[in-house]
Amino acid sequence: MSWTVADAVDYKGFPADRSKTGGWVPAALILGIEICERLSTMGIAVNLVTYLVGVMHLPSSTSANVVTDFMGTSFLLCLLGGFLADSFLGRYKTIAIFAAIQTLGTGALAIATKLPQLRPPPCHASASHTCKPANGFQMGILYVALYLIALGTGGLKSSVSGFGTDQFDDKDEKEKAQMTYFFNRFFFFISTGTLTAVTVLVYLQDEVGRSWSYGICSVSMFVAILIFLSGTKRYRYKKSIGSPIVQIFQVIVAAINKRKMELPYSVELLYEDTPEAQRIHHTDQFQFLDKAAIVAEGDFERNVVSAPNPWKLCSVTKVEEVKMMVGLLPVWATTIIFWTTYAQMITFSVEQASTMERSIGGFLIPAGSLTVFFVAAILITLAVYDRLIMPLWKKLKGKPGFTNLQRIAIGLVLSTLGMAVAALAEKKRLAVARTVGATTITLPISVFMLIPQFFLVGAGEAFIYTGQLDFFITQSPKGMKTMSTGLFLTTLSLGFFVSSFLVSVVKKVTGSNDGQGWLADNINHGRLDCFYGLLAVLGVINFALYLVFAVWYKPKNPKPALQMETIVNGSSAENKC
């Protein structure tokens, strides 16, 4: 019937009434959760390293690893949140539960930064005096708070945008147009939350107190939850359809169990139960997986007319879907290094800023607020690309912008240049530190010297983020769009973890017992420029590998490319996490 939405139900489980459910009002209630999540996560991440070094008295390398492990875990747990939402809880319950978890985490962090018993006594390190670092109990409480926040972030990022799109019927032209405007607002709220975090929230942390700042985050999320719950009767709900991760494991398990069996001489003998219109034709890639479609005794239950056990027998289409996902992995692997570079922007670059001259008149810019140039670079790059580069490229080449693989390549190049520039800037900073004395608290060199590295990596993110999202969405099978977003998120997660691994290795290889080396306990005594140079070299090697894999890759189902404006404002944003 026209007054109901075909694939949605209301809070009682009845077909959703179009006039009483969904639309702008419920979608707006959901956006409050998103802005509070950005406020909390980014407000903590961009300024956490200064707290760990200055208050908890941890070495700079250890502090950087705490931040990157926290961010990496946040993105990795997004896979868990997506799995729970797809298979068990649904998006509404997932949002409510994980928002509450994040509220508890930010509240716990506010308490951990307030109580003097949960941090070491204050002191100022010098050449002859080393401050006492936080003990195991103090760090344990801090870790509990941080990873509660990471768990909450993972659950929220997996469902907020998707639940927002559930409020619009894409089969109705009027609501489909409204959905486009929803994505405009969604990206605006992400940007607003991030900008507020790196400016207002970071300033409050440095000038008023971290406990007040984190307390504001906790209270804000609590209010957002109440607002979100108030719309329960107005939301449209989609039934859980299961996680594609399960399908991937089913194909792998079935193929392994039948590894000793021979493939039939004709692919027509492989099992297929997918409707003709939805079938994916068999390919010769990764033939080992084809064994999951071999019909064997015991695959069907006796005397029962039903589908086979999916852990024993999979259709050719399901196998081909998994093959398509496997084919994305080489490009996937070569984009991880970008997010390793990105991790330096919220760790060592912030620590660099904390040692430099940051005054404008009588106002002292918080070190963590330098990331505002990073966010600005993203927004400026998106605007320039959409308004200038795309029309020019279309006029010259007849194509509406760069392909997804080209955008990824541009992002990798810009991030590598960013690390090379960062190495040169750090070399200059260290020269000043040696001239005036490495123990000088504020070096006589302007913090604005760091802007080029923030801008280059930020511009790189604008290209690689949209390129990756476009690539994984358009090149993944229709039934695995959620999984394609998961692949994208794992590049972020692994990028942070690779950063932690590199920092640990470099610290061990170049360090000494007195806390010196490339990544010294005090960065004024270290050679951070060499570490940045190492990342630039790794970026060049990675880019060469990327070019090989990009040339090797053959698009399975070519579709119109999703350009930056579409991803930011249009239909693909529902796959953003």
Descriptive notes:
The protein has helices at 24-54, 60-114, 136-157, 160-165, 173-207, 210-230, 244-257, 316-327, 329-333, 336-345, 348-354, 372-397, 404-436, 451-474, 481-510, 528-552, 564-569; strands at residues 4-9, 15-17, 356-357, 359-360, 363-364, 443-446. The chain is mostly helical. The protein has 3 domains: 1-123 and 131-241, Up-down Bundle (Growth Hormone, Chain: A); 244-314, no CATH class; 321-555, Up-down Bundle (Growth Hormone, Chain: A), CATH 1.20.1250. A two-stranded antiparallel ribbon has the order 1-2. Strands 3-6 form a two-stranded parallel sheet. Strands 4-5 form a two-stranded antiparallel ribbon. Strand 1 and strand 2 (15-17) form a beta hairpin. Mean pLDDT is 84; it is low at 557-563 and 565-577. It comes from Gossypium armourianum. It is a multi-pass membrane protein. The chain crosses the membrane at residues 70-89, 96-116, 136-156, 186-205, 211-229, 325-343, 363-385, 405-425, 445-465, 486-506, 531-553. Belongs to the major facilitator superfamily. Proton-dependent oligopeptide transporter (POT/PTR) (TC 2.A.17) family. Keywords: Membrane, Transmembrane, Transmembrane helix.
- Helix tally? 17
The fold-level CATH name of the largest domain is: Growth Hormone, Chain: A
Approximately how much helix is present in the residues? Answer: 55-70%
Task: Compute the number of structural domains.
Answer: 3
- What distance lies between the first and last C-alpha atoms, to the nearest angstrom? 33 Å
Low-confidence stretches: 557-563, 565-577
Alpha-carbon Rg, integer: 25 Å
Secondary structure class reads: mainly alpha
CATH architecture of the largest domain: Up-down Bundle
Total strands: the figure is 6
Q: For this structure, what is the CATH class of the largest domain?
A: Mainly Alpha
